Amino acid sequence: MDDRKHDTTTLGFYAQEAEVYAARRDATLHPRLASFLDLLPPAASILELGCGGGQDSAVMIASGFDVHPTDGTAEIAQAAQKRLGIPVKALLFEDIDARQAYDGIWANACLLHVPRSSLGDIIGRIHTALKDRGVFYASFKAGEADGRDQFDRYYNYPSQDWLSDLYKHYPWASVAIETAPGGGYDKKPTQWLHVTATKT
After folding, report:
1. Coil, strand, or helix at residue 144?
2. pTM summary value
3. Helix, strand, or coil here: 179?
4. What is the pLDDT of residues 66-104, one digit of tens each?
5. CA 60 to CA 140: how far, in whole Å?
6. How many CA atoms lie within 13 A of 62 on its CB side?
7. Which pLDDT band, with edges at 50, 70 and 90, does 183 fall under?
8. Domain annotation for the chain: domains and CATH numbers
9. With 0-12 CB in 10 A as exposed, 13-18 as middle and 19+ as buried, what is 74?
10. Which three-class secondary structure state does DSSP give residue 74?
11. 154-185 burial, b for 16+ CB within 10 Å, e for fewer?
12. Residue 55, C-beta contacts closer than 8 angstroms, at least 6 positions apart
């Protein structure tokens, strides 16, 4: 059985590429970020997981939300902190220990690196960290079996059915999974799974 909580090779890649990720700039608001924010009350408390260079956190802060950005790679967290001018915590997913603390949790293209055997536990930690009626967004690269990309990064590559079954282990009021084509750092066409869940 695979008991890894995280993949050290993948974390090493992001540590090495921290400057590249910090320098990335999005010209427009992530459309799913806009939809996520529309589900939250004004000035809501938001935990961002895998914040990268802080681009999405910057949008949320500018929109008046109480944002708590984090990243699993210390080097990237430091770069995001320089951009945002607020503390950015280096946080591994297995170290999430908040309870009823956030109105929303935004995890764009980061939980896709969690080993399959650990993903259910991480989703459970996120569920616990949310307030009642809190909203959780995450995105994954779709597939049928886990594996590595050309940069040796680990991906869990879930199918929609596999992911849906995993979320059912926790009492969500609703779970919506949408599929959409897109891309990524590797510039290859990718089928994405976008999951929005609301806590009971």
Report:
1. coil
2. 0.93
3. strand
4. 999 999 999 999 999 999 999 999 999 999 999 999 999
5. 21
6. 10
7. confident
8. 8-199 (3.40.50.150)
9. middle
10. helix
11. bbbbbeeebbeebbeebebeebebeeeeeeee
12. 24, 25, 26
Cα dihedral sign for 125, 131, 133, 139? negative
Q: State the first-to-last Cα distance of the chain, in angstroms, to the nearest integer.
A: 32
C-alpha torsion angle, residues 200, 49, 91, 128 (rounded to 10): 0
* pLDDT > 90: percent of the chain: 84
In angstroms, rounded to a whole number, what is the distance separating the alpha carbons of residues 54 and 60?
10
Q: Tell me the backbone φ, ψ of residue 104, rounded to 5 degrees.
A: -150, 150
Nearest 5 degrees, angle CA 53-CA 55-CA 57? 105
| Alpha helix stretches (DSSP H) within 136-196 | 160-167
Calpha distance 33→51 (Å, rounded): 13
The tokens describing 161, both together, are: 């059915």
Angle at CA of residue 38, ends 34 and 41, nearest 5°: 135
Q: Which tokens belong to 6?
A: 């995280």
CA angle, 114 as apex, 112 and 120 as ends, to 5°?
100
